[in-house]
Amino acid sequence: MAELESLETAAEHERILREIESTDTACIGPTLRSVYDGEEHGRFMEKLEARIRNHDREIEKMCNFHYQGFVDSITELLKVRGEAQKLKNQVTDTNRKLQNEGKELIIAMEELKQCRLQQRNISATVDKLTQCLPVLEMYSKLRDQMKSKRHYPALKTLEHLEHTYLPQVSHYRFCKIMVDNIPKLREEIKEVSMSDLKDFLESIRKHSDKIGETAMKQAQQQRNLDSIVSQHPRISGGKKSKKEVCASSDLEVKNTSPMSEQDSGILDVEDEDEDEEVPGAQDLVDFSPVYRCLHIYSVLGARETFENYYRKQRRKQARLVLQPPSNMHETLDGYRKYFNQIVGFFVVEDHILHTTQGLVNRAYIDELWEMALSKTIAALRTHSSYCSDPSLVLDLKNLIVLFADTLQGYGFPVNQLFDMLLEIQDQYSETLLKKWSGVFRNILDSDNYSPIPVTNEDVYKKIVGQFPFQDAELEKQPFPKKFPFSEFVPKVYNQIKEFIYACLKFSEDLHLSSTEVDDMIRKSTNLLLTRTLSNCLQNVIKRKNVGLTELVQIIINTTHLEKSCKFLEEFITNITNVLPETVHTTKLYGTTTFKDARHAAEEEIYTNLNQKIDQFLQLADYDWMAMEPGSKASDYLVDLIGFLRSTFAVFTHLPGDVDVHSTMSGKVAQTACMSACKHLSTSLMQLLLEAEVRQLTLGALQQFNLDVEECER
């Protein structure tokens, strides 16, 4: 059994040795491992040494067999060594020479290497700068645009910079700084553009009156042009019509870029001569700040914020504009400035409406106009009520009409203004009546109540031209001669016509029909006759110091004025072209006025006569206990009868035509005589029946009878 194991061990060692001989050295580890894992490594070492000795013997045999060749090889090698040494020396020498010769080349190569490196760096730098320069140029352009207040172009540049240029060079630090600054720049543009808008709004507020003045002047020119064209239809050319002016203005606006670089506010315009073309109201205003700010806020996505801010500020300005000054009613300039500001405000808003998309809309404009209309009408009602000068009221009316026509030309409804003018017309009539009341008082107070003397034909024709009077008998009389009436007749007649003209002036441009104008004039004239003139005549008649001669002359004058009423009717018909036969035409009440005045004068005559009689009767001093009567009538009665004779002589010798003569002599004289006699008889009877008279003598009764008989004679 031990022998068998020994044989197996020997076979295994033999296998390992063969494996060691045939295996690569790198893979011999596992083989040796198997030897050391076994227990017979001593025996294996013996076998290995025996195998080494065996191989050494074989190597020795082989070397002995090839020894001569080895010697020859050594000899050859020795020869080669000598040649190799020579070659080495030559190579060393050549290398030394080459090194010496290559030093300059090496230096040049180093320089070339550095140049190539610099070239690469420069090329890379140029490439990077080529990428960065557009960014820097755009940023510089952005700063320049903001410095020159070109905010809308600056915003466009900022958009290009952010979305096109910066992404290409985003890894550079300066680009990151730019990216961080972009929101700040946007906010700065936003704030600066809003500041420009605020300056624009403030400038517009301050210059609204200038804008309105220009618009109203333009409307006035258009009215004048329309008037000329209506009178001369064939005339063409000349000044632009309002629509042409507006069209040209709109064209200018369309050509105005929101990037316009003009300063905000009002453009300076010198005062134009009346003969020159008045610039359109929009031509005075540079709206570019509004357009720029609108576009900027739209691009930034804050359009709604901008619209709300603009409308809010303009509403505040509208309230300020619509607040009239407290002393506006004192002068026409106060009203004019008030209207100019309102017109200027709405001209601007109308222009904004038509040149922007949605910044303001028609509903917003209509709301503002309704507010303005109500406040304006309320202010005009209040302030016009303080005005007592008809000339100022008339000028105010013309100004309101121009104000209404101007705004109507921009599409605003103005019917309420014309309705209010009809209210002011009543006030105007009242101021006219007050003015004419003073005129009539002055005429009546300055009149001498004597027939007008005429010394020649020219004076006669002048008076006849002033007052419609015809009398064939008076015309046949030689000069000098007298008109039956005093000077206040033609003066009053002409003042009535002047009043009618004044009423007509107010009705101009109110868009009233001829019938309405005629009705207005007739009603106002009736008030003048029945109230103003009638009161003035009544005051003259009721004066304490008025004499019977003056009263008689007043009767004559009112008779002639009464007859002239038909000529006043014709005068109104001629200026209004409305026939008196037209339905609803108001009739003049002048006849009634002058009849009432004449009756009042007659009553005053009767009253004055009775008062005079009473004054004479106060002088009566009867001695009711006299035993004998006097030889003649009482002195007071003789004086009374003398006064009555002279008074009735005035009635008897009245100048004038047959009608007036017969009227005065017949009616007034007879009525006055009857009234005086009746009053005298009644008064004499009262003397007898007085309570103080307790006893009467026959002589006293005979004296009283003598006085009565004197009265009868």
UniProtKB/TrEMBL annotation:
The keyword tRNA-binding does not apply. This is EXC6B protein. Residues 221-230 have a biased composition (Polar residues). Keywords: Coiled coil, Exocytosis, Transport. The keyword Transmembrane helix does not apply. It comes from Jacana jacana (Wattled jacana). GO terms for cellular component: exocyst; plasma membrane. One of its GO terms (biological process) is Golgi to plasma membrane transport. Residues 47-216 form the Exocyst complex component EXOC6/Sec15 N-terminal domain. Residues 416-712 form the Exocyst complex subunit EXOC6/Sec15 C-terminal domain. It holds the Pfam family EXOC6_Sec15_N. Residues 45-115 form a coiled coil. Residues 221-243 are annotated as: Disordered.
